[in-house]
Design brief:
By secondary structure, this protein is α/β, with parallel strands linked by helices. It contains 20 helices and twelve strands. This is Succinoglycan biosynthesis protein.
Length: 469
Amino acid sequence: MSGPTTRFARRIRNAAVVCALGLIAGCAPWRADARAWASAQPTITRELGARARPLGELDAAVPTAAPVWAMVREAHVIGVGEGTHGTREFRRLLHGLVVHAAHEQQPVVLAVELPFNMVLALDAWAGHGWSPDPQIRDRDLSDPKLLASGWLGAVQESRELFTWIRDFNRSAPPERQIRLVGVDVCMTVHCGAEIADYLVDVDPGIESQARDLVLPLRGFDLERTRSPALAARARENLAELRGMLAARRDRIVERRGVDTYESAQRLVWLAERRVDIALAWGDNPVSPERELAMAGTVAWIRDRLGGDGWVLLHAHNGHVGRSRPRMPNGRLSHSPQMGEHLAARLGSDYAVVYTTFDAGEFLAFHTRGRVGAEKFKTRALRAFSVRPAPRGTLEATLRAPTAYALDVGEATAAAGPLADYLRAGHWSRTFTYAWRPSFAVFPVGWTGIAPAADFDVLVYVPRAAATRP
């Protein structure tokens, strides 16, 4: 009896959920926007056609993004956002911007939303940094030490970009080589091992001691337990490692250069931030401390460049925007994002490119998790289909038949419905690393933005393709 009863109860529950979803969809917050801007829509479309710049070469063998680069090149830190982590056109846009920056004869850093320690090997593979693995530059990008497989960064578009960077670095003088840096905290199972690598390289006799000191960071015991005692031990050990690095600074600089020494110290700083986050939030990847740590690392990169060159910061739209995104329930997200911290610190030296699309596909992890979860239990990667955006959303109001870039500052400098629209708040597409088709019934794939306040350039794609694993 319990089996049929359970199945019947499940059906009743599912029917109730479907009914609730219908009510939610009927009260979609963008419907008010559709009514408010209906009379201005023809003029908005006409003005958009006059001001937008076409982006027609994102699929070239070496993509170009000249209109976007012209709009943002005066800033030294450029946040290149993506509405999903699995959209081909967004990755090709980043590739094009890297090419434009590299040809400006100035230093360039590609800063990516990945753990700092993880990207060290990729930077060495691309010809710039140091790695304890002498064979690193002979490895294939599919190697687990580099891009491996089975995650959203291990796609053909990323392999094409990193291969282009490697080829560029081979003929570039050291001061003009493109550097790859991860801005995220150390979130891997082997967190801390790289700190020991730097020490052992110049002083092999301390290997055992250095490896023992990073043990509290190995695995995810701290995230699981949130133990104050384990956190205190980890902090004490990291302080000791910092001192060991400082005592061997001259040897590290002489052997590997000052850049390598500063990277080692940054590893310690980011490992300390990992301890802070784990103690406060456990294994939740969404935290104000993480956003602040990422912003701090971007600022550190910028300071090291001096007055020249560019930092191209690649992350989700939600991380790079100037202000806090608004959730479908109307409330602001619970903490300032990386871009908000950077805007406060850098002012006009920080520019933001916001990317979105109307319909098509995107790559993400399939999940059976619940709507609104901050951490998902994920399954295999797959491409998800997306229907055209509903009336009232930014994508529908600024719809066009071809991809374009819009200089938001220029567009809002003039009077007219388009300028008024860009100054107001609206709903725009946003997808996380995990998705399931039923999520589309809820207004969870949307975020509240105010274009003129949040970003400098809008890049729109009418029909997107998923990245290719």
